[in-house]
Design brief:
By secondary structure, the protein is of the alpha+beta class. Helix content is 33%, strand content 34%. It has seven helices and eleven strands. Strands 1, 2, 3, 4, 5, 6, 7, 8, 9, 10 and 11 form an eleven-stranded antiparallel beta sheet that branches. α5 packs antiparallel against α6. The longest helix has 29 residues. It is globular, with a radius of gyration of 20 Å. The chain starts with 6 loop residues before the first strand and ends with a helix.
């Protein structure tokens, strides 16, 4: 293996839609299935995703990002399969590593030179690791609050999702243990297969190209509209808080709390 080659790993996960105010299931709910929940850890993540203007990566089921923050900060090239994702990882660097460029050329040829940033994601991630009775870590449950900006269209989106990811060496059946707990708490399996597809509004087009049923396409259109509305609401709330009237109201609330 070349010294510039990325570190390989396999990602197996399930995504879930959740309401903005839905709490994670209590430890006792996981305990009923024989799982122990570790204390939650929160990370602030930021990522930039890359592709060409012709979506050479996306059309091949590939996604390239550089992520800051969390336990896996660095460059990631993902290839999505039917039920799993093959991932190559390179350590964090301000410039795109030579190994990434070489891998891109091997995958998309000369189009690799046209790869450029297409989207930015900011994520507040709260992680809970679930282990079995023997202490073996099986699943990482991530509660993600995502704010995304599509650099190409200028469209902002925001959403919240839970991800249950199988940890190395764990049996796939571990995800079947976790799912009923999440569903009972109010989560629903997500229509989205990847954050970058959701961030750039490509879920609907991908569904149409695959011949999806009209009901699924309509559900994806509704999901995208909800994501846009959530981003607009967050932007309006932020603007109100920064306005003179909003600042004065915040000061009055602070003074009232002090009294």
């Amino acid at each position: 293996m070349s010294e510039n080659a990325g570190r390989q790993s396999l990602e197996i996960e399930r995504k879930y839609e959740v309401a903005a105010d839905l709490p994670l299931p209590p430890d006792s709910a996981f305990a009923e299935t024989g799982l122990t929940a570790a204390s939650p850890i929160t990370y602030e993540l930021s990522a930039v995703y890359f592709d060409t203007s012709d979506a050479d990566l996306a059309r091949r089921g590939l996604a390239l990002r550089v992520r800051h923050g969390g336990s896996d900060a660095g460059w990631h090239l993902k290839e999505r399969g039917a039920s799993e994702v093959q991932e190559l990882f390179w350590p964090l660097d301000d410039a795109m590593p030579d190994g990434v460029r070489a891998e891109l050329r091997a995958r998309i040829g000369g189009a690799a030179d046209a790869v450029a940033p297409i989207a930015e994601l900011s994520t507040e991630r709260t992680v809970v690791v679930l282990a079995d009775a023997a202490g073996a870590e099986l699943v990482e449950l991530a509660d993600d609050r995502v704010e995304a900006f599509d650099r190409v269209t200028g469209v902002a989106r925001a959403w919240r999702e839970w991800e249950a990811e199988l940890l190395p060496g764990a049996p796939r059946a571990a995800l079947d243990l976790v799912e009923p707990v999440l569903r009972a708490a109010g989560a629903e399996p997500s229509l989205s297969v990847a954050k970058i597809a959701r961030a750039t509004g490509r879920l609907v087009d991908a569904a149409r190209r695959s011949g999806a049923e009209p009901e699924r396409i309509a559900a994806l259109e509704a999901l995208d509209a909800s994501d846009r509305a959530a981003a607009d609401a967050a932007s309006a709330e932020g603007a109100a808080a920064e306005s003179p009237a909003g600042s004065a109201a915040a000061e009055r609330r602070t003074e009232g709390d002090a009294q």
